[in-house]
Amino acid sequence: MNVSNLRDIRRSWLLHGDLPASDLETQLGLTVFRSWQRCLQSGLEAFQKQLPENILSGDILRSRIEHRHDLIALAKPTMNYLHSLMAGSGGVILLSDHQGVIVHSVGDPQFVSKADRVLLKTGASWLEKHRGTNAIGTALVERTAVSVNGSEHFLENNGFLSCTAAPIFSPDGKISGVLDISTDKSAFHPHTIGLVKATVHALEKQLFSIREAEYALILKIHSGPDGLGSMGEGVIGLDENGRINGIDRTALSLIGINVIDIGVVKIQQLLDISLDAIFDYAKKDSAKVYELKTHSAKTLFFKISLGMARRALAQTKDLNISVALPEDALHRGNQLESGDLKQISKIAIQRTLEKTNGNISLAAKLLKISRNTLYRYLK
């Protein structure tokens, strides 16, 4: 929006508390307008000089970083690549956890020192209630990509920044973290939000790949056949009963369900096809493109393949594993005691682990013992 208009709004509303104009939502943009309202309701003052640091350090910070080790390891190469594209232009790439605490950063030294003055650094919380309207905190609340430029920041001290961030969703629909690019407001570029979205989309695809071993079926989905295999395709992970246990945002949109449906809705409730038929397609040719319709008559295109869990299960049918268990053990399923392990052939265990490529959870499931029991055996 016009800089002078924004300055007038800040004076009128945030400094003097005057009732803003009725078209303020349009002038500010709905995202910033809602965020400023939340900041005022939390008791923040836009022009206050002293703010609580809300920054972690020492063992607490180390524990926080360790808890997000997998996400950091996944994001680091991408963040370094982004930095190489931006090097010299001044800026920093940040990764926060699901609670807005920065757990990793990389950036130009001259800008980093400037950013440190407003605690834009590892260990600092950038939730709205601590830092006002900002890309990380606001993206967490809005659950979508956000750009906050210059005086759109609620706190006057942050007005020199231009920040763009997007939440990173895991396949179960929960937010794993937030990726942010922050620069001086003079370096703001409207294409930055597209870059952040594309980067986060790629990271979410990698998070899905890491968990593929948990799924019996993997569906790749797009609105057109040529889109399959492209960056724009969606991915869905199903269990043996067709339940959607993993999905990315592209697929969510295409099949028309919400995050709360993950782990509840079954694919056969959405598509005009039986689960048995989907499994048959997966066994025939994972490279073939299938045209399927939803129950609302929407046409979608799929590639369907067996997940690692189902492939390993199919392979073990040829193993001739002999597992002699006590009769009452059949009723206890995965809750077998360590004594039951003595009834299982060591060769069967070793061959099952080989077939599952060392996947402990899957091997335990196939052997009908608990994962902890199998761990005790391995020790």
Please tell me about this protein's structure.
The protein is α+β, with helices and mostly antiparallel strands and 379 residues long. The protein has 3 domains: 34-209, Beta-Lactamase (2-Layer Sandwich); 212-308, 2-Layer Sandwich (Beta-Lactamase); 319-378, no CATH class. The protein has 15 helices and 10 strands. The strands form 2 sheets. The protein has a 5-stranded antiparallel β-sheet, sandwiched between helices. Strands 8-7-6-10-9 form a 5-stranded antiparallel β-sheet. α5 (69-86) runs antiparallel to α9, α13 packs across α14 (360-367) and α14 (360-367) packs across α15 (371-378). The longest helix has 19 residues, at 192-210. The chain is globular, with a radius of gyration of 25 Å. The chain starts with a helix and ends with a helix.
